[in-house]
Amino acid sequence: MNIVAPAQAPGNVFIVGARKGLSTYWMLMRIMIPVYIVVTLLNHTPVLPAIAHFFEPAMRLWRLPGEAALAMVLGHFVNLYAALAVIAAGKWDPVAVTVAGIVLGVSHSHLMEAAIFRQMRAPAASLVLLRIVMGWSLGWLVAMVFPR
Amino acid sequence: MPEIIREIAGGLGGLMLKIFLIVMPLIIVLEWAKTRRWFTRFIEATNPVFRPVGFRPQALFPLLIGLLFGIAYGAGVLIPQARSGDLDSRQIFLVAAFLGLCHAIIEDTLLFVALGGNGWVIVLTRFATALLAVWALSKLHWPAPAPVNTTEIKEAA
Predict the structure, then answer these.
(1) Under 8 Å CB-to-CB from B30, ≥6 apart: which residues?
(2) Mind listing the pLDDT tens digit for each residue in B65-108?
(3) I want to staple A101 with a disulfide (CB 3.0 to 4.6 A). Which of A9, A82, B117, B141 is the partner?
(4) Chain B contact for A147 (CB, 8 A cutoff)
């Protein structure tokens, strides 16, 4: 295990840590601030509800009400809180909430989190695809096996 | 229009403050903890779960932080480690894949539990899937390891 760093003067680690912390913070903010602004603006346009409308009929395959499409689109593009607001307003049965929790738990906030993947130097597009495929397959699986 | 600006400014301010208050202490603590023996022991204790699927010990701290707190915090811990060459591109990819599928499990799960969802089903499905997916990805050797970007490492040093 080479996780233990070579011995340093005790005060040093805090200065090194603070410097690393600041540069990392800047690296995160540099990407998160513009993405946050774009996402908030997008949420004020009719684009997301239009996409949701298109997917409404498909929700039945996941044992979800039609309005789940809006929760899913908001969760995928904006964040979990936007999706939760829709779910909370809808009085869904526990199975539907659990299925939505699995789909959205695995697959959410893709604009922001893909930007974070890029800062980690991980292949963002592949990872977003992985999350979407896994989230919806798992949600479907749970919807099928979950007893009513 | 001014309402949107106020919404963005308020939300962004909160987000920036929250990430600063979490990432700064975490990175400082990590720097310090790396010099302590108990930290090595703690990391070793989580190894039986994470090593078989392809993670190396250096990946475990960002992994656990991301798993518990959220992907941005995991990334916050991972980025300096990646820049100093402590983690190779392969490990970074596996951490990103795991955290993509399974992060912030406490907060995310409780949000759905509050609305009547089954928390155990949500947590266990996500965790098992993330482990399986990372195991599969590490067996597949996909994607091929990228060449190390030496200019960035020099820049960080």
Answers:
(1) A17, B61, B77
(2) 999 989 999 999 999 988 888 899 999 999 999 999 999 999 89
(3) B117
(4) no
DSSP secondary structure letters along B111-151: HHHHTT--HHHHHHHHHHHHHHHHHHHHHHT-SPPPPP-HH
Q: What residues of A are in contact with residue B4 (Cβ under 8 Å)? A: 40-41, 44
DSSP assignment of A65-85 equals -TTHHHHHHHHHHT-HHHHHH
Q: Do B24 and A131 touch (CB under 8 A)?
A: no
**Whole-angstrom Cα distance, residue B53 to residue B136?**
8
Q: To probe the interface with A, which of B7, B12, B20, B79 has the most A CB atoms within 10 Å?
A: B79
Among A129-133, B8-12, B119-123, name the one with the lowest average pLDDT: B8-12
At A2 the pLDDT is 47
Nearest CB among A14, A28, A104 relative to B75 is that of: A28
Restricting to A residues 26-45, those with a Cβ less than 8 Å away from any Cβ of B are 27-29, 32-33, 36-37, 40-41, 44
Tokens 């475990």 — which residue? B60
* Predicted structure pTM score: 0.84
CA–CA separation, B74 and B77 (whole Å): 5
- Contact present, A110 and A124 (Cβ < 8 Å): no
Measured between CB atoms, which of B80, B101, B116 is closest to A106?
B101
**Nearest-angstrom CA–CA distance, A32 and A12:** 30
- B7-45: b or e for each residue (b if 16 or more CB lie within 10 Å)? ebeeebeebbeebbebbbebbbbbbbbbbeeebbeebee
- A100 in B contact zone (CB under 8 Å): yes
